[in-house]
């Protein structure tokens, strides 16, 4: 199986909702166009930032269809397929139409807290049935379980179609261990906007970004500069966004970025329960930072 090059800035696409909580498909199309026109290297559909647990199966299929059709092979599309029941995940993979999908992103099983051997066996089962490259997703802050560097490296070495990891453990030492000891073609991707710059300096190939929804042009430029070794100019952009990195997640993801996109004219500031919009105080801080940044990446809904 041919691999996929996920160097650069991928964006974990949000799901826009209307005030009645139905999906705003017109806003979704605007978002996809905005990302493709402003330097996004690939799109990740149905990830955490998409509020995927709150979507019906019919909605997931429609979002996937729209993303695939709108992207139209111009950039890669990565589809989130994960869960904490291995049988269900493998069955979903076997019944998914992968036309227009270049890879899958699959999260470490959550809530039931498997051992490292359990995590390995889970991804082994996924690798065996997946017709597309598999990107592992380690985010212990959400799953309750950290996939160790040893388990990641074991999977990377044993399965040719396990081609990358989105690492969001926050453990730089662990990430560095993976980068130093991985197979040459295996790619390490930052899962945290705030540490993307230093992680690229260590050898990561880029990021699957949340802030990229709002600032694809600027943030993708930072990523490209860092990959090219222009750390001075990359650091300047990184520093400009430092305050936003924190504000994006202080009230949870994607509440922060949805608030930001609402201020920029892209979407309604609406989430589905159990998620709620950011607090007014956070919104005010985000607005202040946006005013100071004065980056022309906004859009009108009219």
**Order of adjacent strands in the largest pleated sheet:** 1-2-3-4-5-6-7-8
Largest sheet features: 8 strands, parallel, barrel
- CA(first)-CA(last) distance: 45 Å
Q: What global shape is seen?
A: globular
Rg on CA atoms, Å: 18 Å
The residue-averaged pLDDT reads: 95
* Unreliably modeled segments: none
Relative helix content: 40-55%
Structural class: alpha/beta
Total E-strand runs? 8
Number of helices: 12
Strand content: 5-15%
Order of helical and strand elements = EHEHEHEHEHHEHEHEHHHH
Please sum up the structure shown:
By secondary structure, the chain is of the alpha/beta class. It has twelve helices and eight strands. The N and C termini lie far apart (45 Å).
Topology:
Blueprint lengths: L7 E5 L12 H13 L4 E4 L11 H15 L5 E4 L5 H9 L8 E5 L8 H14 L4 E5 L1 H4 L5 H10 L3 E6 L4 H10 L5 E4 L5 H7 L3 E4 L6 H12 L3 H19 L5 H9 L16 H14 L9
Parallel strand pairs: 1-2, 1-8, 2-3, 3-4, 4-5, 5-6, 6-7, 7-8
Helix pairs in contact: 1-2, 3-4, 4-6, 6-7, 8-9, 9-10, 10-12, 11-12
Kindly describe this structure.
The N and C termini lie far apart (45 Å). The protein is 45% helix and 12% strand. The protein is an alpha/beta fold. The protein has helices spanning 25-37, 57-71, 86-94, 116-129, 140-143, 149-158, 172-181, 196-202, 216-227, 231-249, 255-263, 280-293, and strands spanning 8-12, 42-45, 77-80, 103-107, 134-138, 162-167, 187-190, 206-209. It is built from twelve helices and eight strands. An eight-stranded parallel barrel has the order 1-2-3-4-5-6-7-8, surrounded by seven helices. The longest helix is centred in the C-terminal third of the chain and has 19 residues, at 231-249.
